[in-house]
Amino acid sequence: MRRLIYWTAIAALLSAAPLSAADGPLVPDPIFDVPALTSTPLHARTLERSEHDGIVTEQVRFHSETDGDKQVEIFAFLSYPQGARAFPAYIWNPGGLGQASPAYTELGARRGYVVLCIDFPQPGYRSTGDYPINSGLFVGDDPRQAPIYHGAVALLKAVSFLISRPEVDPERIGMAGSSWGGFFTTLMAGIDSRLKVAACLYGTGGLHLGNAWWDGPSSNGREPPTPAERERWRQTLDPAWRLPTKRTPIAWFTGTNDVFYLMPAVMHSYERAAGPRHLMLLPNWDHALPATLHDELIFSWLDAYLQDATPPPAVSPVTVSHEESRITACWDFDGDAVSADLIVSYGATGNWRGRYWQSIPATIDGHSCRAEIPAARYPCFISGAVVDKRGHRSSTPLLLVDPASFGVVTEVRVPDYDGCSEWGGFEETQIAFLARHTQSGQTRWVPDVSADAYAGRASAVVQPGTTLLPPILSTALAPHQFRCRLKADAPTEIVLQIADKQARAKIGTEWTEVVIEHTPPATIIGDIPATITTPPDSVVLIDAVSFHPLH
Question: What's the predicted TM-score (pTM) here?
Fold first, then answer.
Protein backbone atom coordinates (compact mmCIF):
# COMPACT_ATOMS: atom_id res chain seq x y z
CA MET A 1 0.00 0.00 0.00
CA ARG A 2 2.84 2.43 0.84
CA ARG A 3 4.33 1.84 -2.62
CA LEU A 4 0.98 2.62 -4.25
CA ILE A 5 0.67 5.86 -2.24
CA TYR A 6 4.22 6.75 -3.19
CA TRP A 7 3.66 6.06 -6.91
CA THR A 8 0.58 8.32 -6.89
CA ALA A 9 2.56 11.08 -5.20
CA ILE A 10 5.42 10.77 -7.70
CA ALA A 11 3.03 11.04 -10.65
CA ALA A 12 1.60 14.22 -9.18
CA LEU A 13 5.03 15.72 -8.57
CA LEU A 14 6.28 14.94 -12.07
CA SER A 15 3.21 16.42 -13.71
CA ALA A 16 3.43 19.64 -11.70
CA ALA A 17 4.98 22.83 -13.00
CA PRO A 18 8.69 23.37 -12.23
CA LEU A 19 9.33 24.88 -8.83
CA SER A 20 10.36 28.51 -8.66
CA ALA A 21 12.99 30.21 -6.53
CA ALA A 22 10.22 31.18 -4.14
CA ASP A 23 9.99 27.51 -3.12
CA GLY A 24 13.52 27.63 -1.68
CA PRO A 25 14.42 27.79 2.01
CA LEU A 26 14.51 31.01 3.96
CA VAL A 27 17.79 32.81 4.47
CA PRO A 28 19.57 32.30 6.81
CA ASP A 29 19.64 28.57 6.23
CA PRO A 30 17.38 26.82 8.79
CA ILE A 31 19.74 23.81 9.03
CA PHE A 32 23.26 25.07 8.33
CA ASP A 33 24.37 28.16 10.27
CA VAL A 34 27.15 28.90 7.81
CA PRO A 35 28.61 31.99 9.56
CA ALA A 36 28.86 30.13 12.87
CA LEU A 37 30.17 26.91 11.35
CA THR A 38 32.90 28.66 9.36
CA SER A 39 34.00 31.00 12.15
CA THR A 40 35.56 28.35 14.39
CA PRO A 41 39.39 28.05 14.34
CA LEU A 42 40.87 25.71 11.71
CA HIS A 43 43.95 24.68 13.74
CA ALA A 44 45.36 23.56 10.38
CA ARG A 45 48.66 21.77 10.22
CA THR A 46 50.74 19.92 7.65
CA LEU A 47 51.60 16.37 8.65
CA GLU A 48 53.83 15.45 5.71
CA ARG A 49 55.06 17.11 2.51
CA SER A 50 56.49 15.63 -0.68
CA GLU A 51 57.39 16.87 -4.16
CA HIS A 52 57.51 14.99 -7.46
CA ASP A 53 57.78 16.27 -11.05
CA GLY A 54 56.94 19.81 -10.01
CA ILE A 55 53.85 18.85 -7.96
CA VAL A 56 53.78 19.38 -4.20
CA THR A 57 51.53 17.11 -2.14
CA GLU A 58 50.79 17.63 1.52
CA GLN A 59 48.97 15.52 4.07
CA VAL A 60 47.05 17.99 6.21
CA ARG A 61 44.65 18.06 9.12
CA PHE A 62 42.21 20.75 10.26
CA HIS A 63 39.33 21.18 12.70
CA SER A 64 35.77 20.70 11.45
CA GLU A 65 33.40 21.03 14.41
CA THR A 66 32.76 20.29 18.06
CA ASP A 67 29.86 17.83 18.33
CA GLY A 68 29.06 17.48 22.03
CA ASP A 69 32.23 16.09 23.57
CA LYS A 70 33.54 15.02 20.16
CA GLN A 71 36.25 17.01 18.37
CA VAL A 72 35.91 16.30 14.65
CA GLU A 73 39.26 16.61 12.85
CA ILE A 74 39.59 16.23 9.08
CA PHE A 75 42.47 14.54 7.26
CA ALA A 76 43.09 15.52 3.63
CA PHE A 77 45.53 15.52 0.75
CA LEU A 78 46.44 18.86 -0.82
CA SER A 79 48.32 19.09 -4.13
CA TYR A 80 49.48 22.10 -6.15
CA PRO A 81 52.12 23.09 -8.72
CA GLN A 82 55.43 24.06 -7.14
CA GLY A 83 55.56 27.81 -6.53
CA ALA A 84 51.79 28.27 -6.87
CA ARG A 85 50.37 31.56 -5.60
CA ALA A 86 46.75 32.67 -5.97
CA PHE A 87 45.92 29.69 -8.19
CA PRO A 88 42.39 28.43 -8.90
CA ALA A 89 41.38 25.58 -6.60
CA TYR A 90 38.73 22.94 -6.18
CA ILE A 91 37.70 20.23 -3.75
CA TRP A 92 37.20 16.72 -5.13
CA ASN A 93 34.63 14.46 -3.44
CA PRO A 94 35.25 10.80 -4.41
CA GLY A 95 32.63 8.31 -5.52
CA GLY A 96 31.21 6.35 -2.60
CA LEU A 97 32.96 8.92 -0.38
CA GLY A 98 36.03 6.73 -0.63
CA GLN A 99 39.14 7.73 1.26
CA ALA A 100 41.23 10.62 0.02
CA SER A 101 44.13 9.81 -2.29
CA PRO A 102 46.90 11.86 -3.90
CA ALA A 103 45.84 10.29 -7.19
CA TYR A 104 42.78 12.56 -7.07
CA THR A 105 44.62 15.72 -6.07
CA GLU A 106 47.67 15.38 -8.29
CA LEU A 107 45.50 14.91 -11.39
CA GLY A 108 44.12 18.42 -10.99
CA ALA A 109 47.43 19.90 -9.87
CA ARG A 110 48.97 18.82 -13.18
CA ARG A 111 46.30 20.95 -14.86
CA GLY A 112 47.15 24.10 -12.91
CA TYR A 113 44.86 23.75 -9.87
CA VAL A 114 45.28 23.56 -6.14
CA VAL A 115 43.25 20.47 -5.23
CA LEU A 116 42.00 19.27 -1.85
CA CYS A 117 40.44 15.86 -1.16
CA ILE A 118 39.26 15.02 2.34
CA ASP A 119 38.62 11.85 4.24
CA PHE A 120 35.00 12.33 5.22
CA PRO A 121 34.51 11.84 8.99
CA GLN A 122 33.43 8.21 8.60
CA PRO A 123 34.20 5.07 10.62
CA GLY A 124 37.66 3.69 9.93
CA TYR A 125 38.88 6.80 8.10
CA ARG A 126 41.81 9.04 9.02
CA SER A 127 39.39 11.83 9.92
CA THR A 128 37.63 11.56 13.28
CA GLY A 129 33.88 11.63 13.85
CA ASP A 130 32.76 8.09 12.93
CA TYR A 131 29.55 9.21 11.18
CA PRO A 132 28.09 6.58 8.77
CA ILE A 133 27.64 9.23 6.08
CA ASN A 134 27.37 7.04 2.99
CA SER A 135 25.12 4.39 4.56
CA GLY A 136 21.87 5.95 3.32
CA LEU A 137 19.57 8.95 3.39
CA PHE A 138 18.58 9.71 6.96
CA VAL A 139 17.12 12.85 8.56
CA GLY A 140 16.10 11.70 12.04
CA ASP A 141 14.44 13.89 14.64
CA ASP A 142 17.16 16.53 14.33
CA PRO A 143 18.70 17.05 10.85
CA ARG A 144 21.81 18.46 12.57
CA GLN A 145 22.48 15.01 13.96
CA ALA A 146 22.11 13.26 10.61
CA PRO A 147 25.39 11.84 9.26
CA ILE A 148 25.00 13.85 6.03
CA TYR A 149 24.96 17.09 8.05
CA HIS A 150 28.40 16.36 9.47
CA GLY A 151 29.78 15.60 6.01
CA ALA A 152 28.56 19.00 4.81
CA VAL A 153 30.15 20.76 7.80
CA ALA A 154 33.48 19.10 6.96
CA LEU A 155 33.23 20.50 3.42
CA LEU A 156 32.43 24.00 4.70
CA LYS A 157 35.64 23.89 6.70
CA ALA A 158 37.49 22.43 3.68
CA VAL A 159 36.60 25.59 1.73
CA SER A 160 37.82 27.67 4.69
CA PHE A 161 41.07 25.71 4.66
CA LEU A 162 41.64 26.47 0.96
CA ILE A 163 40.97 30.16 1.56
CA SER A 164 43.63 30.15 4.27
CA ARG A 165 46.33 28.93 1.89
CA PRO A 166 48.54 31.41 0.00
CA GLU A 167 48.59 29.06 -2.99
CA VAL A 168 44.84 29.67 -3.51
CA ASP A 169 42.90 32.54 -5.05
CA PRO A 170 39.89 32.75 -2.67
CA GLU A 171 37.74 34.12 -5.51
CA ARG A 172 38.36 31.03 -7.66
CA ILE A 173 37.34 28.00 -5.59
CA GLY A 174 35.10 25.25 -6.95
CA MET A 175 33.93 21.78 -6.02
CA ALA A 176 33.47 18.57 -7.99
CA GLY A 177 32.55 15.00 -7.17
CA SER A 178 31.27 11.65 -8.36
CA SER A 179 28.20 9.73 -7.13
CA TRP A 180 28.01 10.38 -3.37
CA GLY A 181 30.63 13.01 -4.14
CA GLY A 182 28.27 14.55 -6.71
CA PHE A 183 25.48 14.49 -4.14
CA PHE A 184 27.61 16.51 -1.72
CA THR A 185 28.80 18.83 -4.49
CA THR A 186 25.17 19.64 -5.35
CA LEU A 187 24.38 20.13 -1.65
CA MET A 188 27.33 22.45 -1.07
CA ALA A 189 26.53 24.55 -4.15
CA GLY A 190 23.31 25.50 -2.35
CA ILE A 191 24.95 26.01 1.06
CA ASP A 192 28.29 27.72 0.51
CA SER A 193 28.26 30.97 -1.50
CA ARG A 194 32.09 30.99 -1.53
CA LEU A 195 32.02 28.30 -4.24
CA LYS A 196 32.30 29.77 -7.73
CA VAL A 197 31.47 26.59 -9.68
CA ALA A 198 30.27 23.02 -9.07
CA ALA A 199 30.59 19.93 -11.30
CA CYS A 200 28.79 16.66 -10.54
CA LEU A 201 29.24 13.21 -12.03
CA TYR A 202 25.98 11.28 -11.39
CA GLY A 203 25.15 12.70 -7.96
CA THR A 204 22.27 15.12 -7.63
CA GLY A 205 19.39 16.27 -5.44
CA GLY A 206 15.65 15.77 -5.84
CA LEU A 207 15.94 12.36 -4.19
CA HIS A 208 12.41 12.53 -2.77
CA LEU A 209 11.35 11.66 -6.35
CA GLY A 210 13.06 8.27 -6.15
CA ASN A 211 16.48 6.79 -5.47
CA ALA A 212 18.24 3.47 -4.97
CA TRP A 213 18.35 3.74 -1.16
CA TRP A 214 14.59 4.09 -0.82
CA ASP A 215 13.19 2.48 -3.95
CA GLY A 216 15.85 0.29 -5.53
CA PRO A 217 18.68 -2.20 -5.00
CA SER A 218 20.19 -0.35 -2.02
CA SER A 219 16.97 -0.37 0.01
CA ASN A 220 17.98 -3.65 1.71
CA GLY A 221 14.35 -4.69 1.99
CA ARG A 222 13.21 -1.59 3.85
CA GLU A 223 9.84 -0.10 2.99
CA PRO A 224 10.18 3.22 1.16
CA PRO A 225 9.42 6.39 3.12
CA THR A 226 5.91 7.78 3.13
CA PRO A 227 5.16 10.93 1.09
CA ALA A 228 5.33 12.94 4.34
CA GLU A 229 8.78 11.55 5.12
CA ARG A 230 9.96 12.33 1.60
CA GLU A 231 8.69 15.88 1.96
CA ARG A 232 10.60 16.32 5.22
CA TRP A 233 13.77 15.13 3.49
CA ARG A 234 13.13 17.55 0.62
CA GLN A 235 12.98 20.55 2.95
CA THR A 236 15.98 19.71 5.12
CA LEU A 237 18.90 17.78 3.60
CA ASP A 238 18.02 17.27 -0.06
CA PRO A 239 20.68 18.99 -2.20
CA ALA A 240 18.20 20.49 -4.69
CA TRP A 241 16.19 22.47 -2.13
CA ARG A 242 18.74 25.27 -1.71
CA LEU A 243 19.77 25.66 -5.35
CA PRO A 244 17.37 28.57 -6.04
CA THR A 245 19.14 30.62 -3.34
CA LYS A 246 22.56 30.60 -5.07
CA ARG A 247 23.76 31.48 -8.55
CA THR A 248 26.75 29.14 -8.51
CA PRO A 249 27.28 27.67 -12.00
CA ILE A 250 26.58 23.94 -11.76
CA ALA A 251 26.75 20.99 -14.15
CA TRP A 252 25.50 17.41 -14.02
CA PHE A 253 27.05 14.66 -16.16
CA THR A 254 25.22 11.33 -16.04
CA GLY A 255 23.86 8.34 -17.88
CA THR A 256 20.15 8.19 -18.60
CA ASN A 257 19.83 4.91 -16.69
CA ASP A 258 21.64 5.71 -13.46
CA VAL A 259 20.17 3.46 -10.78
CA PHE A 260 21.13 5.67 -7.82
CA TYR A 261 20.17 9.11 -9.13
CA LEU A 262 17.10 8.72 -11.33
CA MET A 263 16.19 11.06 -14.15
CA PRO A 264 13.35 12.83 -12.24
CA ALA A 265 15.86 13.74 -9.51
CA VAL A 266 18.37 15.06 -12.05
CA MET A 267 15.70 17.10 -13.85
CA HIS A 268 14.37 18.51 -10.58
CA SER A 269 17.86 19.67 -9.59
CA TYR A 270 18.50 21.17 -13.00
CA GLU A 271 15.19 23.09 -12.95
CA ARG A 272 15.91 24.61 -9.54
CA ALA A 273 19.43 25.84 -10.26
CA ALA A 274 19.32 29.65 -10.29
CA GLY A 275 22.68 30.27 -11.97
CA PRO A 276 24.33 29.01 -15.16
CA ARG A 277 23.68 25.28 -15.54
CA HIS A 278 24.74 22.46 -17.79
CA LEU A 279 23.43 18.96 -18.41
CA MET A 280 24.97 15.98 -20.18
CA LEU A 281 22.90 12.82 -20.65
CA LEU A 282 24.55 9.74 -22.14
CA PRO A 283 21.92 7.27 -23.42
CA ASN A 284 21.77 3.75 -21.96
CA TRP A 285 24.66 4.28 -19.54
CA ASP A 286 24.02 3.46 -15.89
CA HIS A 287 26.25 4.62 -13.01
CA ALA A 288 29.33 5.02 -15.23
CA LEU A 289 30.71 7.02 -18.12
CA PRO A 290 33.36 6.17 -20.74
CA ALA A 291 36.90 6.51 -19.44
CA THR A 292 37.73 8.98 -22.23
CA LEU A 293 35.04 11.37 -20.96
CA HIS A 294 35.15 10.92 -17.19
CA ASP A 295 37.81 13.48 -16.20
CA GLU A 296 37.43 15.75 -19.23
CA LEU A 297 33.78 16.44 -18.47
CA ILE A 298 34.62 17.73 -15.01
CA PHE A 299 37.43 19.94 -16.27
CA SER A 300 35.31 21.29 -19.13
CA TRP A 301 33.07 22.97 -16.54
CA LEU A 302 35.68 23.86 -13.92
CA ASP A 303 38.00 25.37 -16.51
CA ALA A 304 35.22 27.57 -17.90
CA TYR A 305 34.64 29.32 -14.56
CA LEU A 306 38.02 29.04 -12.85
CA GLN A 307 40.44 29.40 -15.78
CA ASP A 308 38.40 31.38 -18.34
CA ALA A 309 38.23 28.49 -20.82
CA THR A 310 35.48 28.05 -23.39
CA PRO A 311 32.46 26.37 -21.77
CA PRO A 312 30.53 23.51 -23.39
CA PRO A 313 27.83 24.68 -25.85
CA ALA A 314 24.67 26.06 -24.24
CA VAL A 315 21.40 24.59 -25.48
CA SER A 316 17.82 25.81 -25.33
CA PRO A 317 15.00 23.51 -24.15
CA VAL A 318 13.70 21.21 -26.87
CA THR A 319 10.37 22.09 -28.46
CA VAL A 320 8.03 19.92 -30.52
CA SER A 321 5.96 20.73 -33.59
CA HIS A 322 3.49 18.73 -35.69
CA GLU A 323 4.08 18.84 -39.42
CA GLU A 324 1.57 16.76 -41.42
CA SER A 325 2.07 13.21 -40.10
CA ARG A 326 5.44 13.94 -38.52
CA ILE A 327 6.44 15.13 -35.06
CA THR A 328 9.64 17.17 -35.10
CA ALA A 329 11.86 18.15 -32.19
CA CYS A 330 13.83 21.41 -32.40
CA TRP A 331 16.43 23.07 -30.19
CA ASP A 332 19.00 25.83 -30.49
CA PHE A 333 22.55 26.16 -29.20
CA ASP A 334 25.27 28.74 -28.64
CA GLY A 335 28.89 27.98 -29.42
CA ASP A 336 30.28 25.42 -31.84
CA ALA A 337 28.93 21.94 -32.58
CA VAL A 338 30.10 19.20 -34.92
CA SER A 339 27.13 16.87 -34.42
CA ALA A 340 23.69 16.69 -32.85
CA ASP A 341 21.25 13.97 -31.89
CA LEU A 342 17.92 13.36 -30.23
CA ILE A 343 17.54 10.62 -27.63
CA VAL A 344 14.07 9.10 -27.32
CA SER A 345 12.67 6.65 -24.77
CA TYR A 346 9.13 5.29 -25.00
CA GLY A 347 6.77 4.62 -22.13
CA ALA A 348 5.21 6.68 -19.37
CA THR A 349 6.98 7.96 -16.26
CA GLY A 350 9.01 5.31 -14.43
CA ASN A 351 11.20 2.36 -15.44
CA TRP A 352 14.15 4.72 -15.11
CA ARG A 353 17.02 2.27 -14.91
CA GLY A 354 15.34 -0.11 -17.33
CA ARG A 355 14.34 2.32 -20.11
CA TYR A 356 15.82 1.88 -23.56
CA TRP A 357 16.94 5.11 -25.25
CA GLN A 358 17.17 5.40 -29.03
CA SER A 359 19.60 7.91 -30.52
CA ILE A 360 18.44 9.68 -33.68
CA PRO A 361 20.87 11.84 -35.71
CA ALA A 362 19.75 15.47 -35.98
CA THR A 363 20.40 18.03 -38.69
CA ILE A 364 22.20 21.28 -37.84
CA ASP A 365 21.22 24.47 -39.62
CA GLY A 366 23.27 27.37 -38.29
CA HIS A 367 22.63 27.22 -34.54
CA SER A 368 19.39 25.21 -34.76
CA CYS A 369 18.87 21.44 -34.63
CA ARG A 370 15.98 19.31 -35.89
CA ALA A 371 15.13 15.62 -35.62
CA GLU A 372 11.99 13.64 -36.36
CA ILE A 373 10.50 11.61 -33.52
CA PRO A 374 9.53 8.10 -34.70
CA ALA A 375 5.74 7.68 -34.50
CA ALA A 376 4.39 5.36 -31.82
CA ARG A 377 1.28 4.76 -29.75
CA TYR A 378 3.22 5.14 -26.51
CA PRO A 379 4.33 8.54 -25.14
CA CYS A 380 8.06 9.20 -25.03
CA PHE A 381 10.68 11.25 -23.23
CA ILE A 382 13.07 13.17 -25.48
CA SER A 383 16.27 15.19 -25.06
CA GLY A 384 18.24 17.02 -27.72
CA ALA A 385 22.01 17.30 -27.65
CA VAL A 386 24.96 18.83 -29.45
CA VAL A 387 28.61 17.76 -29.33
CA ASP A 388 31.51 20.15 -29.88
CA LYS A 389 34.88 19.36 -31.44
CA ARG A 390 36.32 18.50 -28.01
CA GLY A 391 33.70 15.78 -27.60
CA HIS A 392 31.81 17.73 -24.93
CA ARG A 393 28.11 16.93 -25.02
CA SER A 394 25.38 19.38 -24.01
CA SER A 395 21.85 18.03 -23.45
CA THR A 396 18.45 19.64 -23.11
CA PRO A 397 16.26 18.72 -20.13
CA LEU A 398 13.81 15.89 -20.75
CA LEU A 399 10.44 16.59 -22.33
CA LEU A 400 7.50 14.17 -22.27
CA VAL A 401 5.75 13.95 -25.65
CA ASP A 402 2.42 12.21 -26.29
CA PRO A 403 1.91 11.61 -30.04
CA ALA A 404 -1.83 11.21 -29.50
CA SER A 405 -2.05 14.85 -28.39
CA PHE A 406 -0.91 15.83 -31.90
CA GLY A 407 -3.47 13.60 -33.56
CA VAL A 408 -0.85 11.15 -34.84
CA VAL A 409 -2.34 7.70 -35.38
CA THR A 410 -0.14 4.63 -35.85
CA GLU A 411 -0.30 0.89 -35.29
CA VAL A 412 3.28 0.86 -33.98
CA ARG A 413 3.26 0.46 -30.21
CA VAL A 414 7.01 1.13 -29.86
CA PRO A 415 9.62 1.45 -32.65
CA ASP A 416 11.89 -1.57 -32.83
CA TYR A 417 15.12 -1.72 -30.82
CA ASP A 418 17.34 -4.24 -29.06
CA GLY A 419 17.38 -3.82 -25.29
CA CYS A 420 20.59 -5.86 -25.05
CA SER A 421 22.44 -4.00 -27.79
CA GLU A 422 24.96 -2.47 -25.40
CA TRP A 423 26.38 -5.89 -24.44
CA GLY A 424 24.54 -8.83 -26.06
CA GLY A 425 27.08 -9.60 -28.81
CA PHE A 426 30.07 -9.67 -26.42
CA GLU A 427 32.25 -7.81 -28.90
CA GLU A 428 35.24 -5.77 -27.75
CA THR A 429 33.37 -2.47 -27.30
CA GLN A 430 30.54 -4.24 -25.47
CA ILE A 431 32.92 -5.94 -23.03
CA ALA A 432 34.53 -2.53 -22.44
CA PHE A 433 31.05 -1.14 -21.68
CA LEU A 434 30.50 -3.84 -19.04
CA ALA A 435 34.00 -3.39 -17.60
CA ARG A 436 33.56 0.35 -17.28
CA HIS A 437 30.47 -0.13 -15.11
CA THR A 438 32.39 -2.60 -12.94
CA GLN A 439 35.21 -0.07 -12.52
CA SER A 440 32.67 2.43 -11.21
CA GLY A 441 31.82 0.07 -8.35
CA GLN A 442 28.82 -1.81 -9.74
CA THR A 443 28.32 -5.55 -9.71
CA ARG A 444 28.31 -6.35 -13.41
CA TRP A 445 29.10 -9.59 -15.27
CA VAL A 446 32.25 -9.15 -17.36
CA PRO A 447 32.68 -12.58 -18.98
CA ASP A 448 35.64 -14.26 -20.53
CA VAL A 449 35.12 -14.43 -24.28
CA SER A 450 35.58 -17.13 -26.89
CA ALA A 451 36.35 -16.76 -30.59
CA ASP A 452 33.74 -19.47 -31.22
CA ALA A 453 30.90 -17.08 -32.02
CA TYR A 454 27.43 -17.44 -33.50
CA ALA A 455 27.65 -13.89 -34.86
CA GLY A 456 30.46 -11.38 -34.92
CA ARG A 457 33.87 -12.22 -33.49
CA ALA A 458 33.14 -13.29 -29.92
CA SER A 459 30.79 -15.12 -27.58
CA ALA A 460 30.73 -15.19 -23.78
CA VAL A 461 31.87 -18.09 -21.62
CA VAL A 462 29.30 -18.90 -18.93
CA GLN A 463 30.82 -20.33 -15.77
CA PRO A 464 29.09 -23.24 -13.96
CA GLY A 465 26.41 -22.12 -11.51
CA THR A 466 24.05 -19.15 -11.75
CA THR A 467 25.17 -16.03 -13.63
CA LEU A 468 23.32 -12.71 -13.39
CA LEU A 469 23.07 -11.21 -16.85
CA PRO A 470 23.68 -7.46 -17.36
CA PRO A 471 20.69 -5.08 -17.28
CA ILE A 472 18.12 -5.58 -20.03
CA LEU A 473 16.53 -2.36 -21.27
CA SER A 474 12.90 -2.14 -22.31
CA THR A 475 9.61 -0.25 -22.46
CA ALA A 476 7.33 -0.94 -19.49
CA LEU A 477 4.01 -2.66 -20.31
CA ALA A 478 5.08 -3.49 -23.89
CA PRO A 479 5.42 -7.21 -24.73
CA HIS A 480 9.01 -8.17 -25.58
CA GLN A 481 10.84 -11.24 -26.80
CA PHE A 482 14.20 -12.36 -25.39
CA ARG A 483 16.42 -14.43 -27.69
CA CYS A 484 19.88 -15.89 -27.36
CA ARG A 485 22.05 -18.64 -28.84
CA LEU A 486 23.76 -21.24 -26.66
CA LYS A 487 26.13 -24.14 -27.15
CA ALA A 488 28.23 -26.42 -24.93
CA ASP A 489 31.27 -28.67 -25.18
CA ALA A 490 29.00 -31.66 -24.50
CA PRO A 491 25.21 -32.22 -24.30
CA THR A 492 23.80 -30.60 -21.17
CA GLU A 493 20.76 -28.70 -19.86
CA ILE A 494 20.65 -25.03 -18.86
CA VAL A 495 18.01 -22.91 -17.14
CA LEU A 496 17.33 -19.41 -18.41
CA GLN A 497 15.26 -17.13 -16.16
CA ILE A 498 13.84 -13.77 -17.30
CA ALA A 499 11.92 -12.21 -14.37
CA ASP A 500 9.18 -14.78 -13.60
CA LYS A 501 9.56 -16.67 -16.91
CA GLN A 502 11.78 -19.74 -17.05
CA ALA A 503 13.02 -21.86 -19.93
CA ARG A 504 14.90 -25.15 -19.67
CA ALA A 505 16.88 -26.01 -22.76
CA LYS A 506 18.92 -28.99 -23.81
CA ILE A 507 21.96 -27.79 -25.71
CA GLY A 508 24.88 -29.47 -27.38
CA THR A 509 27.79 -28.72 -29.64
CA GLU A 510 25.69 -26.80 -32.17
CA TRP A 511 24.22 -23.35 -31.53
CA THR A 512 20.70 -23.61 -30.09
CA GLU A 513 18.24 -20.73 -29.89
CA VAL A 514 16.29 -20.07 -26.69
CA VAL A 515 13.29 -17.72 -26.73
CA ILE A 516 11.29 -16.24 -23.82
CA GLU A 517 8.50 -13.67 -24.02
CA HIS A 518 8.12 -11.15 -21.21
CA THR A 519 6.16 -7.95 -20.58
CA PRO A 520 8.04 -5.66 -18.16
CA PRO A 521 5.79 -4.22 -15.44
CA ALA A 522 5.59 -0.51 -14.62
CA THR A 523 7.90 0.16 -11.65
CA ILE A 524 10.02 3.13 -10.66
CA ILE A 525 13.38 1.40 -11.23
CA GLY A 526 12.50 -1.00 -14.05
CA ASP A 527 15.01 -3.79 -13.51
CA ILE A 528 14.47 -7.08 -15.36
CA PRO A 529 16.27 -9.79 -13.36
CA ALA A 530 17.79 -12.30 -15.78
CA THR A 531 19.98 -15.30 -14.98
CA ILE A 532 21.44 -18.36 -16.69
CA THR A 533 22.21 -21.49 -14.68
CA THR A 534 24.58 -24.13 -16.03
CA PRO A 535 25.62 -27.45 -14.48
CA PRO A 536 29.06 -28.22 -13.06
CA ASP A 537 31.80 -29.54 -15.33
CA SER A 538 30.36 -27.94 -18.45
CA VAL A 539 31.60 -25.21 -20.74
CA VAL A 540 28.69 -23.15 -22.08
CA LEU A 541 28.86 -20.30 -24.58
CA ILE A 542 26.20 -17.63 -25.10
CA ASP A 543 25.90 -15.18 -27.99
CA ALA A 544 23.47 -13.02 -29.96
CA VAL A 545 21.47 -11.96 -26.89
CA SER A 546 18.61 -9.62 -27.77
CA PHE A 547 15.39 -8.17 -26.35
CA HIS A 548 12.97 -6.71 -28.90
CA PRO A 549 9.47 -5.26 -28.48
CA LEU A 550 6.75 -7.32 -30.16
CA HIS A 551 4.43 -5.67 -32.67
Answer: 0.93
